[in-house]
Amino acid sequence: TLLRSAPDIIVLSGYHASDASLANATLQHPALAHLRARTRTVTVPAPLGACGLPVSLRSVDLLQQAASLE
Fold it and tell me: 26 Cβ partners below 8 Å, 6+ apart?
């Protein structure tokens, strides 16, 4: 599971992050909150993940920046 795998980075989309939903409630779970407190987390805006768009390259920049932080 994510909690046991000790990821280097957690990537979130931020898609409708303020909306009430089960998906967003899961992201507020105490176990995930504990993991996020000790793990780099990057939010890549959902529109940047659209396949085939030149703007998608911005998501690569965000991930590279997050990976280079120590």
Answer: 32
| Structural contact between residues 11 and 42, judged by C-beta atoms closer than 8 angstroms | yes
Is the pLDDT at 8 greater than 80? The verdict is yes
Q: Which residues does residue 42 pair with via DSSP β-bridges, in sequence order?
A: 11
What's the pLDDT tens digit per position in 18-56? Answer: 788 887 888 888 998 899 899 998 888 877 777 767 777
Task: Give the tokens for residue 12.
Answer: 């979130």
Could you say which DSSP state residue 56 is in? Answer: G
Rounded Cα distance, 45 and 34, in Å: 23
**Concatenated DSSP letters for 20-66?**
--HHHHHHT-HHHHHHHHTSEEEE--GGGG-TT-GGGHHHHHHHHHH
